[in-house]
Specification:
17 strands; 2 helices; 2 domains; mainly beta; Thrombin, subunit H; six-stranded antiparallel barrel; Porin
Length: 316
């Protein structure tokens, strides 16, 4: 009698299992362990306590038994344990067999909370900015510049910048004189890779050209006496042009401030009419900014040349 009832229950359950796709979905898992009174399973989503877990027989064409879920642990895959309710096929009620629950009894797979975006270093672009520059060849008091950053991917950006100042190099001997024929120009670009939320590595290219006063040029000429030049100059007398590849680190000391330090292994400096010198140089940059604009102070120093400039946002 008991066997007949059990067979009837198994047949009914098998019928329900076969017909279930018509009215509900299934969430499939796998039996991971079986004891005398309980089983442990693995499911891709959380299973509610009290859910019927149907263990499949063979290749899933029939039912081997059923257990009622009691505990669900983990964060995916989920370990679901339950008490055995009945077994109709002991040979197939074992580890490795398919098991499923009605999808209505499974909690939706919790959407993984997106990791809080790493505090990527804020570029603090200056946009269109007021530009002034001081170099060994002269001082430019009034100019314009443009700075823009382009995001190339997660944690990678390309920073482009250029400026020109045309109001004057102040005479070395006469601090009150201005020569509007002088021009100081710069173009810079660097590729930045964020290593941590507060630190980024960059590699870039520096280019600058300046024409100053005769007073400043005389000082440069005297300082270069006895120097060995690597090549002949291609610039006009009174003009200094420099370029080189720069490598450095950008440190974000606060949400609105950053400090960059860099190194140029071979800064090629062309002293017009004299010759070319290639030497190492160090760079530094201090920047303050927010979405509305910012201020940038930067400098470069080598054995035979130095420069510094200031940028202040005019318009974003």
């Amino acid at each position: 009698m008991a066997r007949g009832v059990l067979s009837a229950v198994a047949a009914a359950t098998a019928c329900i299992a076969a017909c279930a796709p018509a009215w509900c979905g299934r969430l499939y898992g796998e039996v991971t362990s079986v004891t005398e009174n309980a089983i442990t399973t693995s499911f891709p989503a959380a299973v509610k306590p009290g859910s019927a877990m149907i263990v499949m027989s063979g290749d899933g064409e029939s039912v081997a038994g059923m257990a009622i879920s009691q505990h669900c642990r983990g964060r995916g895959p989920y370990e679901v344990s339950g008490a055995i309710s009945w077994i109709s096929d002991p040979m197939n009620f074992k580890t490795g067999k398919k098991v499923y629950v009605n999808s209505l009894n499974a909690s939706a797979i919790p959407a993984k909370k997106p990791a809080p975006p790493r505090a990527r270093p804020t570029p603090h672009d200056l946009g269109i900015y007021y530009y002034s520059s001081a170099q060994k060849v002269g001082y430019g008091a009034l100019g314009l510049g443009l700075e823009k950053s382009l995001n190339l991917g997660t944690g990678v950006s390309l920073e482009l910048d250029g400026g020109i100042t045309g109001l004057a190099a102040v005479g070395a001997d006469n601090g009150g004189s201005f020569e509007t024929s002088s021009l100081l120009k710069s173009l810079n670009g660097r590729l930045k890779l964020n290593l941590t939320p507060g630190c980024a590595f960059y590699s870039g290219y520096r280019w600058s050209k300046g024409k100053g006063t005769d007073d400043h040029w005389d000082i440069i000429t005297k300082d270069l006496q006895g120097k060995t030049f690597a090549a002949a100059s291609s610039e006009d007398s009174g003009v200094v042009a420099l370029r080189g590849l720069e490598y450095g680190l950008a440190l974000h000391v606060s949400p609105t401030a950053s400090l960059s330090v860099g190194y140029i292994p071979a800064l090629r400096t062309d002293f017009g009419g004299l010759g070319v010198i290639s030497e190492p140089a160090r760079t530094a940059e201090l920047r303050f900014g927010d979405p509305k604009g910012g201020i940038r102070i930067r400098g470069l120093s080598g054995e035979d040349y130095w420069l510094a400039d200031l940028g202040i946002t005019i318009s974003r």
